[in-house]
Target: PDZ domain-containing protein
Amino acid sequence: MGSPTFPSQRRAHSLLHPHQVSVARQGPDLNREGLAPLQVVKDANGLRFSLDGGRGSLQGDRPLTVKKIFQGGPKDLLQPGDEVLQIEERSLQGLMRLEAWQLIRALPVGPVQLLVRKKAKP
Model:
């Protein structure tokens, strides 16, 4: 089975205030493994969510997960505990949280493709 693709029809709105974050308004397309390709928009404040875990974290080597979604962030697409697997075409497997943060910081402002594994519902 191949990995999910990012639907080309999901585009961020271009009429945003420069400090707003836009997210694709369609719900995530989940496959059987709970994987969802998502589009968010990076602005001057980043992607507006923080990460937890990663290689060498205080709790040991763990997947990188969404820790907190900040005001103006993609709350309708992400939730704390979602595992971030890819940013654009770059896998986050085996990265330290700092390395993932540096990758995000280096991205240009604008639409960003994510691949996440949604947190299982209890």
Notes: The first helix runs from residue 97 to 106.
